[in-house]
Each structure stands twice: as C-alpha cells, then as structure tokens.
Amino acid sequence: MIDPNIRQRPAYRKGLWFRNMVILLGVVALIAIFLNQFDLNSTGRLVVDPVLSAPIGERDVTVASHKSGHTIVIDAGHGGKDPGANGASGAEEKDYTLALAKKVYALLQQDPKFDPYMTRNDDTFLDLDERSAYSNQLEADAFLSIHGNTYTNPNISGTETYYDSLISIPLAETIHSKLIEATGFPDRGVKQEQWRVLVGSERPSILLEVGFMTNPQEEAKMLDNARQDRVAQAIVDGLKQYFEGK
Ligand SMILES: [Zn+2]
Question: N or C: which end of the chain has fewer CB within 10 A?
C-alpha cells in the first residue's frame, strides 16, 4: 500500500525523465558506434582504420601505391553464413581463423616494415574470389589464408601449408617451418593444391591449415589464447625471415 503522505511525482515530471533517458541512451549508442570505428594500436593510441571499417568492395585500395612496407593480406577463412569446420567441442572454424588473423594483424601493425590488411575483421561472409581480388588490388607482397582443418576421423592431426603457384613455394616453406615449431603438431608438409582462394591470386599466396579442429586435443590447443599468440608470432617471424631472404 502506498503511503498517502508520500507525494507522487507530477505526470509531466515523469514525461521529462523518460525523454531525458531516451536522449541519454541515444548519446551512449552514438558513442558506441563511434568507438567501433577505431582500433587501439600497439601504443594504446586510437587510430582510424578506414581500410578495415568499410565493406571490402568500398575500401580505398589506392593506399598500396604509397605504401612504406611489405603489404600483407591476412585472410581469416570462412565467416558469416559459412562457419567452416565444426570443431570437436562445437567451436566453429570461422571464429578460430578470425581470432588468429587478428593477432597476426596486430603484431604486423607494430612493425613499420609491414603494411597489414585483413580481408575481414568481423563475422562477415566473403566469397573466395573477393578475397583474392582484394590481395591483387593491393598488390600484396604476401597473402595468407588462415584455416583450421577437418576430417571424419578425430585421430587425424597435424599442420599443413598449401600453395598453388610456384612463386609461392618459398613463402609456404618459410612460414610452415615456423608454424610447425610453434604448434608442435605433426608435420603434414607443404603441398600444392588448387584451392580457389589461391588460384585467383596473382600474388605470393599460401593457405595455412594450422591444425585439425576435429581432433579434440589439437582443437583445445588451437583455441588456447596463449598458444594462439605463439602461433601468430611464428607466422610473423616467418614473414620477417621470408622478406629478409629476398
Ligand atoms: Zn577452412
């Protein structure tokens, strides 16, 4: 029961309160949208990244003409309606590839020798030709498509690196040897395969199958954050070695 001595708020006051809340929520939403356009770089400084914030077809690729370092395109496999492999624990390949791709991108951003790009930096669907076309437009010095493997037999494990064009062999071999060290997974070798994302690329391009998501032990290691950091660092170390040797 309401104490009749307690004064009720006048109706117009309630209306005012409601209007203020709507304005406040609107401002909070705008700030959230605004902050979403930025990435924190290595120094903690806010930087605008116009390349990443636009849909792939609308991005400014002219930046490649005044680049200062090696242009690296990191492609997180799958995305959006295409989940890729289904891991032993139910994890989806598209989330794994994005997590690892972001780590590689962040490390490359810290090094002035590299100009890194990502084909996607969120859960977006891109077809395979869009990915390789983006790499071609940017005249990438290296294109890396990141994947997790899948097989019907959960005991199958190991790391594989693929190339299509012969110009990509040195890149594939250098990254693969670093990857094997970092994962500790069985070495399934560097192989040639006409994966569509590689066939469409005119640039040195490789596809990394870091490990088998269908193998429970391997999947657990692939999803481990600290191990992902090590794998990302290995990919970057491989890129450094590759360009030093050129
Ligand atoms: Zn895949």
Answer: N
